[in-house]
Design a protein that fits this description.
Strand content: 15-25%
Radius of gyration: 17 Å
Number of strands: 8
Structural class: alpha/beta
Strand order of the largest sheet: 1-7-8-6-5-2-3-4
Number of helices: 7
Helix content: 25-40%
Largest sheet: 8 strands, mixed
Oligomer: single chain
Shape: globular
Length: 249
């Protein structure tokens, strides 16, 4: 899409990652962490910065009609792939908060939303996060948008909210003009992840159920990442929008 602004964003050096400090990444589905900011996570760990992860959805709806893999089996497979990817990026794969919200139906309000936001806020405090990574607020997938709302609610409840960097996944492919960032919504930049690009690609490859030929082969309607989609994440830069500071409550 020629109208995408991301390629015009200024490039910050790989060394910038170290300035983000202790970081929590909030992930809608297993694989979004590797696609959207696998390079940043690897650079953070190279710089000795702690990274912790929050998995929002249960990941079960990529292959909803599988008989060979029950919903529980799909969930456990995708959680295992997430742990593998995080390990590749040198993130502690066993220090993950699993919110377990329904894939495809992550709530944007209501009691389940409020409970999840409270759990997320508690985790951010526990991790003493300086920075939180979350999907771009209008990333064109309902679970990504709900995850952004969840993160915003959690941060708004904190007396001293950390920085919020928003990463891009589906906006590369599906963004309508109104989905794209506006100047007043934050500062866009590209991060040089060239030094760790091979590591990022290995983390993406850990999500075998989402890559052709796949593991769950009895659901012809199941989701697999296309080569065209994957090409966006083989670039030596990653896109971020730093949101304005969250007002204290």
């Amino acid at each position: 899409m020629s109208a995408l602004p991301f390629d015009a964003y200024p490039v910050r050096p790989a060394s910038y990652a170290a300035s983000l400090g202790r970081t929590v990444i909030v992930i809608p589905h297993p694989d979004d962490e590797a696609l959207g900011c696998g390079g940043l996570l690897a650079l953070l760990r190279q710089a000795g910065q702690p990274v912790a992860a929050v998995q929002v959805s249960d990941g079960t709806m990529s292959h909803p009609h599988s008989v060979d893999f029950s919903p529980v089996a799909r969930r456990e497979l995708r959680y295992a792939e997430l742990r593998h990817a995080l390990a590749v990026l040198n993130v502690d794969a066993y220090d993950v908060l699993y919110l377990g919200l329904p894939d495809g139906q992550v709530p944007s309000d209501g009691p389940a939303f409020d409970e999840a936001a409270a759990r997320l806020a508690g985790f951010i405090i526990e991790q003493q996060a300086d920075t939180v990574l979350t999907p771009w607020r209008r990333d064109p997938h309902p679970d990504h948008r709900a995850t952004s709302r969840l993160t915003a609610a959690a941060l708004a409840s904190l007396p001293q909210p950390p920085r919020r960097l928003e990463y891009v996944v589906w906006a590369w492919e599906r963004a309508a003009p109104d989905d794209l960032p506006q100047a007043h919504e934050g500062t866009g930049f590209r991060l040089d992840v060239g030094p760790v690009l091979a590591q990022k690609q290995r983390a993406i490859a850990a999500h075998r159920s989402q890559l052709a030929p796949g593991i769950i082969t009895d659901d012809p309607s199941g989701f697999l990442l296309s080569e065209h989609m994957l090409a966006h994440f083989a670039q030596p830069t990653e896109v971020f929008i730093e949101a304005p500071p969250t007002p204290a409550p």
